[in-house]
Amino acid sequence: MLLQRSCGILVHITSLPGPYGVGDLDSACYFLDFLEKAGQSSWQFLPTVPGVDVFGNSPYMGLSAFAGNPLLISPDLLYEKGLLEKRDLVPAQPFSEYTVDFNAVTHFKESLFLKAFRQFEVYGHFFDDYDLFCKNQAWLDDYALFMSLREKYELQPWYKWPRKIAVHDAKSLAKASGELEDRIKYHKFVQYIFFEQWRRMRQAAKKNEISLIGDIPIYVGYDSADVWANQGCFDLDKRTLKPKNVAGVPPDYFSDTGQRWGNPLYKWKVAAKPNEPLYQWWGQRFVHIGEMVDVVRIDHFRGFASYWQVPEKEETAIHGKWVKGPGAFFFKRLEKKTRGLDIIAEDLGVITPDVIKLRDSLGFPGMKILQFAFDSDNKNTYLPHNFDDTNAVVYTGTHDNDTTVGWYYDDSVPQRAKERARRYANSDGQMIHRDFIRMAYSSVANLAVVPLQDVLGFGSDCRMNRPSIPDGNWIWRCASRFLSDEICHYLRDEARFYGREKDVLKKGESDAQSIGF
Question: Could you tell me the pLDDT band of residue 508, with boundaries at 50, 70 and 90?
């Protein structure tokens, strides 16, 4: 997929239209139809793991690296399975078309999941593959127990649970498993439903010849099933169970004080030898994501070359230091686990020669961001004329950037950068988002990916994430009327003109309503 000219759209599943307050795996199938009609080859989305309210439901700080986000489950598909009644599908209050109210959506959907689970308990014999699913998911037992214990201890983080439970004592966990049997089965059922619906969506992607591009954050959340169940993989203080140091990045484009993410760091070696359980865990992670998607973007790829280590006591990331990562050894060790999975290296931020050397030695395409192209001179590596290889993925912006329209009208962006952008595009800037799309499509990069907000020309109010600002992120949604016939025509025409159009079966013209949202 990454060896030929193609194009795609970046939008998270939660941002898709739908009647239940958040995009889900049914609306995802309709969006695949939109992509096919628009001549697109790829759909890139953010991590699909369960979020947590304390982190604003960030998909980069999930409760598990393996589990699916229950909010992405479609109530309509539960109804089709006979697990809900029609009346269950009517929310007490209508949801917004434009933003996700995570608390309201969670309350509504969890009530539906519980009803569906009770039906499943009665008619479970119709779901022959449930037991096989539970047997084949090595992560599921720990996750279901973790979530059940989290409920029992009133959503406190695992390191504040009773000591024997917190340190994963086998006898204590066996006792807890017996006491929490019903809730454990409930959480397994929810995951079973998620991955059943995911398989349906992936089959639709294959039918439409759309490659799914997933996202693996290099780090996982401290309060997650992964850290709790695999404490030997992380650099934790055995007495306090706190991280000795945490992840982040030094001061950069996004923040003058850097970003203190707070994730625990990996314990790459034990007694000067590779930490075998950690490599096993990573291997399982790659196999799992490879079963879900065709391509994966490794977020913060540079952390494998060297990573920014911040003392846990520090409030910002300023006083961190660079520490050497596992490098090429990591990928060679896991070569069999990543076979058949295309990888994109997120190589943004402070990039040093060792990162470039690692990326190129592995043959991974890096990322080119057009919003970064105009803040210096004609040697800027993000300018399309400086792309030195077709093995790259060009973006107008990412989920961490402002929208292109928002960037253009942002007073903090130097006027000189905007002038350079207009000159480069031979444009007056009135349709700056389409100018950037044209620059991306006309570049030599094999894959061009455009955030849906840039396709639609939306402003800063539709931005997905503001790094280092904890509130108001991840909530943007696209109303169905914006995914119009005109947008399909525009994208397909641009893709065709620049040699990126996917071969599409001509099915005649259609409007947004026929797409099905």
Answer: very low
